[in-house]
Structure formats: C-alpha cells, structure tokens
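Order emerges. For instance:

***
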Amino acid sequence: MLKTLASHNPDIQRLLEKGYALAIDSDYLIVRDIPYLDSTGQLQWSAFVGKLVFEDQTKVCPEDHQIHFAAPRPFGLDGQVVRGLGGGEAQLNLSEHCRDVVVNQRFSHKLKEGGQPRPYVDHFEKIESYVAMVCGPAMARFEVTPYTFRDCEGGTTNSVFKLRDTLTSRAEISDLARLFENDVIAIIGLGGTGGYLLDFMVKTPVREIRGFDPDSFFVHNAFRSPGRLDMEDGAELRQSKADVYRKRYENFRHGLIIKPLFIDELSASELDGVTFAFVSVDKGSSRKSIIDLLIAKNIPFIDVGMGLKRHGESISGTVRTTYFPHDTGNSVRNKGYVPETDPPDDVYRSNIQIAELNGLNAALAILRFKQIRGFYAGPVPLNQLLLTLDNVSLLGANED
C-alpha cells in the first residue's frame, strides 16, 4: 500500500526519499524512528501518526494541522517542554501490526503566513514542521536524525472493501471495526427488511456475507428496499433478488455471496461456518423450519418482523427484533416471541410493509448485533425489542 501511495503522491515519495521510516496502517501514516528528549534530557525514540484523507483511491492529503505522538511530551535543550505544541493527551488504537506504536499525545501546530494561520500543503510539509519542533533538540544534542531509511511497511493492507474505508479512520474507531473481522453473516430473506439488512451489513467489515432468497424482484420490492433501481429495459424487474442485490453491491466489497435459495434441511450446508444469522421471512411456517435449523447448528441469530394494520385513517402496529443466543435459543423460542405458524386466514392478510419501517427494523437488528459484538454499549442479554408505533415506545425483554 505504501508503494502505491508513493507512486501517486509526490509528498509521500519525498518523505521516503529523505529517509523517513514510513508505514501505512488503518488509513494512518506512521512515521517511526522519531528522536526526542525526555524530561531528563535523555534521548528517546517515538513515532508520529497522521490521518490520511483519501481524495480518491490513491490520492491522499492531510486531514488537518494535528498529529498524534506515541510518547509523552518532548522537551527542549533548556529542559522545558517544547513550546508551540498545542493539544494534549489522546489515545488511538492501531492494528496489531503497529503494537509498538502506542499513541498518548495529540499535537496541534499551525503554520502562519503573513501573520495568519494556513493549512499544510501536503504531508511532507507537515511532517517536516513537526520534526523540526520535536526532534530538533535531540538532533542537536545527540547528533541523531529521523532519516533511518528503515523499511517499516507491514500495516494492514487487506480489506473486505473494494475502496478505502476512510469513514472508520476518520471516526478513529478502527480498533472497534476489527471486532467483526472473523464474522461470516447469513441473511435469510431479502425482501423489504432483508434488503436493508444487506445494505447495512455490506458496509460492515465482516469477513463474508451470505444472502439467500428464492424469489424474484418486482415493482413492489423497489418501493420497500434500498438502492437505485436500474430501469433500463426493466433490467432488474422480474430478475431474481439474488442477482439484483449481487449486482448492486459487488463493486463495494469482497466476500459477498448471494444465492436464489430457500434455506431448509436440503440446503443446510450453506450455513456451514456462519457465525451469526438474520432471519427476515414473512411466513411463520418458513420461519419455523429455519429456526429449527439454526438452533440445531448452534448459530446465534436475530429474527425480525412487523405487524401493521390499518385502523381508520392511519396505520398502527409493532416492529419486532428478537435475538436467539447460540446456547439458549430454545429458551427464547419457548417465550413465543416469534410466530411460527400461518393463521388460517393468512391468504387474506394485507401484509402492510413501509420502507421506513423496513429500514428501522433492519437498523434495530444491526444495532443489536453490534451490541452483542461489543461495538456499541448496551445490554447484551436483551432478547426482545418491540417498537410500538402508536406512542413510538421501545420495549425490551430478556429470558428471565
């Protein structure tokens, strides 16, 4: 990755040519072998960490005038803290490839031109400016330099995404995003809510996503699912949902497998290796066989559903999200939270579904999944979430 960036960014290439020990990690520029003086005037070594902002897939620029530092405050030749460095204590969790870089400071220094602050023109100017301030005293006293020409490239370069995940690095949550790196997710049913589940999950850095739906994509599906409808010659209408969604998202990420299959005992092997599943089906009888299969395979899962009815001039009802842990799935099942049969008059049901409620149902399910993985704070044992539209209230329950 470093060589690719250097070939498209003259400032990165200049840093390498001058001898800086550079590496790329989680969309951060790491500059190791930075000498500085500690509070006793002794020589120490540290690293700068600067955030990369990707203008496109290969062109980068500095985000702002700030930079992270993997050490306490540096001192000058006079024994005082180096002046002109704003900021304060900060933490930044990098990948396991950069365990040696433990950030605990964030510096803030603005260049001035004509008495007015101005942004750094590129990474070369930014690094050189901070090196002059932080390294200058150590370079003068011990005749050392940060120009070691050391090859430090070894940061994370493999990604499930086909474009750089700059959202994660900008929010400084790269360590939390790694909570999903070993997950293989199954989404069973790609109708309204299932389509939104897929849309949200595609943008989550899980290792693999497997989607299943045997049905075709019709006009009514377009009104309750995310994404742009390809209208050219009716390209998507009457095609399988699997083909429609695969084409919509295949340019976004790797590890996306979507098949026009109904999940039952005959296709049970499709779930081998799945670490978490989402069930989004309409019919209770279909849900029952899927739940049987998931519990038998010890796969934790979330089942989603909604019950909407028209009362006079408005619609009321509930939106449900139910979590089945891998070890207590039958206990949750016995609570009767989810319907597993088809009512006798089911053929006459109106099956009201509205796009915003499909999206909300999916969002609640993804929120619960990410709470379970530790990404969001929240009560992991909570098994049932029920949103009531009448008073917009959210109720929760667990097995106890």
Observations:
- The domain at 182-397 is CATH 3.40.50.720 (Rossmann fold).
- The first helix runs from residue 2 to 8.
- The mean pLDDT is 89.
